[in-house]
Design a protein that fits this description.
Blueprint (H helix, E strand, L loop, with lengths): L1 E6 L2 H6 L3 E5 L6 H12 L1 H8 L2 E4 L2 E3 L10 E5 L6
Parallel strand pairs: 1-5
Antiparallel strand pairs: 1-2, 3-4, 3-5
């Protein structure tokens, strides 16, 4: 299953990209995707992902949320200020 992953703020810097397409297995959940992204981009992104919020097709969800039928995942690290 092909998903567009969009990175914001510190996640963008750690990944070295604004976005990328990622192929995940059927039945994968957000945590599976996070593990794949950490493996692909290294420890810097893994640290950011550990505290990030994930939007699946623009809807917040926990790390156990299924990606079945999803088209896009946004990675939002904690932001300072507000």
């Amino acid at each position: 299953m092909d998903i567009l992953v969009r990175y914001f703020a510190g996640a963008r810097a750690a990944a070295g990209a604004d976005e990328e397409r990622v192929d995940v297995a059927d039945g994968a959940v957000v945590d599976d995707l996070a593990g794949l992204l950490a493996e692909r981009h290294g420890a810097g992104l893994a640290r950011v992902l550990a505290s990030s919020t994930f939007l699946v097709d623009e809807v917040p969800g926990d790390r156990g949320r299924t990606l079945s039928g999803a088209r896009q995942v946004d990675v939002l690290p904690p932001f300072a200020g507000g």
